[in-house]
TrEMBL record:
The keyword Transport applies. Belongs to the bacterial solute-binding protein 3 family. GO terms for biological process: amino acid transport. GO terms for cellular component: extracellular region; outer membrane-bounded periplasmic space. This is Amino acid ABC transporter substrate-binding protein, PAAT family. Pfam families: SBP_bac_3. It comes from Dendrosporobacter quercicolus.
Amino acid sequence: MKKLMLFMVSLIVAAGLLAAGCGGSTPAQPAAGGEAPEIKAIKDRGVLKVGVKVDVPKFGFKDPQTGKIDGLEIDLARTLAKKILGDENKIDVQAVTAKTRGPLLDNGELDLVIATFTITEERKQSYNFSDPYFSDGVALMVKKNSGIQTLKDLNGKKIGVAQSATSKKALIDEVEKEGLKVQFLEFGTYPEIKTALDSGRVDCFSVDAAILFGYLDDSTVILAERYSPQLYGIASKKANAGLAKLANDTVGEMKSSGELDKLIQKWGLK
């Protein structure tokens, strides 16, 4: 009987050891209170990689004289770098457009995108977004001498929009509602659309109002109408939940402290 009991105990111990050895098939999880792997990777690298606009004055704009990129979204990137790395200057900013910002997140070239990235239900299926740090609406810029005063006046005309931006969809909904016929021409960058407007290739330049104000000059006017609220969020890869939480918490803290409002006022966006 004793031999049988010893044999049974041996089997139980062996089974326990075997189960422990098979644990390698399950991905290791951070210990309670541990650091998310994507945040650790940023710290190990020593720099936060952020996709930003370089053609949107007041949000992300590259000064042609100095080559410096600055704006509200660059300040947000600096705030996050300071929180993660203890130094706001430890950021590596990369120029993105509405078309390239998603793919650059997908392939891991960027940790975050802070680039007038509008939060939509469709986009939330592919990326994490923080709570909004800025709210806007789609607007219309036309030449002062065009005689265009409302969306209805664009019936039969051409509207320039950015590739992969939400402006086109917002306007399509309004155009269909009004029973109008317009032609949309898509461009890679905002300066290209402004050039097309100036040359008469398009009759209207449409994007979020705050972006349009960066291209306003003596020959153009922004119409009063606004369409489809545009809420900008900080985007990260869907898998990077820890980094997404940190970005969202930072936006929340900046709102609560009033720091975000100060930055919006600093850049003349309010």
